[in-house]
Structures are given as structure tokens and as C-alpha cells.
Amino acid sequence: MKRALLLVDHGSSRDEANAVLVHVAEIIRDRSDFDTVRYAHMEIAEPTIPQGFDACVADGAREVIVHPYFLAPGSHYNEDVPRLVAEAAAMHPEVRWTITEPLGIHSKLCDVVLERVEAALSRSAGDGSR
């Protein structure tokens, strides 16, 4: 069965913010064995969740795993994303789907925070610059 991963973020009016998810999808596509890796934005930008879900199905997916690329399980994770995914999936009743937990608390994310802190300290030497 062909499986797709659909990464979902909030979406932004800023192109550079939306580009982050594009790059994350590219990295995961290279590192995983998913048949398809797509991305979508919950609001504001395209592709939308329905567009992303449709693209997964058009790629031949019979199962779509949706990953909310959010840090915490807030209202977007608990309410908005499930509603939008269910609406998109209703157009494809033959396709199985599930939603993962958001990024949340994970030791690897803490490692990334510490890596960013070290990089900032080595760049700025504490002068308040970026």
C-alpha cells in the first residue's frame, strides 16, 4: 500500500516562513521510505490541507499520515487540523488516514535548542546581535 506523509504547519503571509516547511519536507523525503512526502499550510498560504491531501492521493497514496509540524498540542492540533483533515479525507473515502502528535517534548528538540544557543553565543559573544 502506498503511504504518504503530509506535513502541516500554521501557514504565514511571509514566504520565507512557509519555505521552512518546504525544506523540512525535502529533508524527510530524502531520509524516509514514504512513497510521497507533501506539505500543507493550515491557513493563509497554499497548498492548503485539502490541496495537500488531494496531492497525496493523486500520487497514489492509499494511506496518508498527517504530521502537525507544531511544537505544542494547542487548539490547532486538537481542533483545527483534525477538522480540516477529516473534511479533506471525506472526498477520498477509500484512503486511510491518521494524525500524529505534534513535535512536543522530545530530547532531540532540546538538543536543537542547545545547538542554537551555542551557535548564537559563538556568533555574538553576548552583544545582543543575531
Distance between the termini: 46 Å
Q: Any guess at the CATH architecture? A: 3-Layer(aba) Sandwich
Give the averaged pLDDT, no decimals: 94
Number of helical regions: 4
Spatial order of the strands in the main sheet? Answer: 2-1-3-4
Number of strands: 4
* Major sheet: 4 strands, parallel
The amount of helix comes to 40-55%
Structural description of this entry:
By secondary structure, this protein is of the alpha/beta class. It contains four helices and four strands. A four-stranded parallel sheet has the order 2-1-3-4, sandwiched between helices. α2 packs across α3. The longest helix is centred in the C-terminal third of the chain and has 18 residues, at 107-124. The mean pLDDT is 94.
In short:
A four-stranded parallel β-sheet has the order 2-1-3-4, with helices on both faces.
Descriptors:
alpha/beta; 4-stranded parallel sheet; 130 residues; Rossmann fold
